Amino acid sequence: TPIGQRVFGIALGYEDLVDHDELRHDPVLGPVLGRLEARHPRCAPLAGNSTLNRLEHAPAAEPERYRRIGHDAAAIEDLFVDLFLDAHAEPPARITLDLDATDDPLHGAQEGRFFHGYYDGYCYLPLYVFCGDHLLLAKLRRSNIDASAGAVEAIARIAARIRARWPRVKILLRADSGFAREALMAWCEANRVDYLFGLARNAKLGKFTPALLRRFQTAFTLGRGRSPSHGRSARRFADFRWTTQLSWSRRRRGVAKAEHMPGRGDGGANPRVVVTSLKTREVDARTRLAKATCGTIRLTLLKIGAQVRISVRRVCVAMASACPYAAEFTLAHARLCR
């Protein structure tokens, strides 16, 4: 009954144990849990704060009669991953794991209460790992830590669990700049896990090479020239090698996007920089699409009209003879098959 009382209390929004000093007299909760009346006329039908507290938080050193609930922490953590794996009838070729740390605001004097400058308030800083709509990890942490604290151990456990079931799956780790840390990137590189992390903008990153600045300036100038008449964004990308002065052990691949967006503040500028272990795209190298954006590739190679005929042994795609990008499509197909 105490376990059921605690579960129903949480479901009703009463997650604090002190709430049960009143809920123990609730005329509906008692009958739901099969307690129509108390054994003693001066007692309530349900348990109060102190009883439930001993049920959940009695120290391990206390006698067994005081400790009613035990748990297997590893089994609880693996449950989310197992549910994700069981949701797939067949192993996917590639999955993307999204790491995130966000604030859980506090409004009282809870244990482990710290002020976080970025969120401008007292909060916890839980760590989450998602794969699409599936939650793989939700770990409560104090907020006086780096956003990436514990990420290496969490990803190592999740990746090992996934590869035990799907040994050939390719894993991509994706997160914002708070996770672009040497320990996490080095672990990924040593364990065949690709990563794509944001990089926080700073003066050094924007000025380390004149060539990169020229690409940025070209995008901004082009965008300002096109926006009044077309109302469209202008984008340019730069591929470069980057490292920090002290924290990184090696140079890594960076990709910068310079974008001008009509109607946006800061003159329409929207620069973004990421660091990644993904290799340079080679499918359309040495073609007209070598420096094309993803949108252009999608329009010219994927969103095209064709006649598809399916037989027992093959799929035949017949394109128009006047397709402007027929040669690029044929070359991309051949390189992908190879």
Question: What's a quick, concise take on this entry?
Answer:
The chain is α+β, with helices and mostly antiparallel strands and 338 residues long.
- Put simply, the count of helices is 11
Strands in their spatial order, largest beta sheet? 6-5-1-7-8-11-10-9
Radius of gyration from CA coordinates: 28 Å
Largest sheet entry: 8 strands, mixed
Any idea what the shape is?
Answer: elongated
Strand content: 15-25%
Proportion of helical residues = 25-40%
Helix-strand topology string:
HHHHHEEEEEEHEHEHHEEEHEEH
Distance between termini? 63 Å
The tally of beta strands, per DSSP, is: 13
Query: Which stretches of 5+ consecutive residues score pLDDT under 50?
Result: 222-229
Mean pLDDT: 82
Helical/strand content category:
alpha+beta
Describe the structure.
The chain has 338 residues and is an alpha+beta fold. It is 33% helix and 21% strand. It has helices at 2-11, 20-23, 29-32, 49-57, 73-86, 151-165, 182-190, 203-207, 210-230, 294-302, 326-337, and strands at 94-101, 104-105, 114-116, 121-124, 127-131, 134-139, 170-175, 194-198, 234-242, 252-260, 272-276, 306-310, 315-319. The strands form 3 sheets. An 8-stranded mixed β-sheet has the order 6-5-1-7-8-11-10-9. The radius of gyration is 28 Å and the shape is elongated.
